[in-house]
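Checklist before submission:
- one chain only
- standard amino acids only
- sequence pasted in full

Submission:
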Amino acid sequence: MKLSLYRFSSGNESTLGLLHIDGRFVCFIIEDEYREVKVKGETRIPSGNYKISLRKEGGFHEKYSAKYPKIHKGMLWLQDVPGFEYILIHLGNSDLDSAGCLLVGDSATQNITTRGSVAGSGAAYERIYPVVANEIEKGSVVTIEIFDEIKK
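Returned file contents:
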């Protein structure tokens, strides 16, 4: 399975993108902003190709196990991101909810004159998560390729 993230708007506080699974658009993504020099918890990850696995420990895993007991198998975790640890795909509405992670949503608000945000995060997550997690659990290789359309 291949996920593709196309970043399309890089604002002062956030980055907006379009997430596709096997070539089909599935949701919007919001992340932290681009920075030439990383600031912990305030910088988006580099573009590139990353394997996704399930992280079955940590605070997010515990929280999501309780919140989604019927579907949760572990957090969607991007592996081997240079200069970053524990980059997850999870719920949230703005860059304030992220420390480099990818946040899913069903709609997006521009980030040119405002901070930018996504809405419908829970619905997007409940729709996308089982598809990706089930593939990982079956032993399939799941990757995400992130493309920078612009940096700013």
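Reviewer check: Residues 2-148 form a domain with the L,D-transpeptidase catalytic domain-like fold (CATH 2.40.440).
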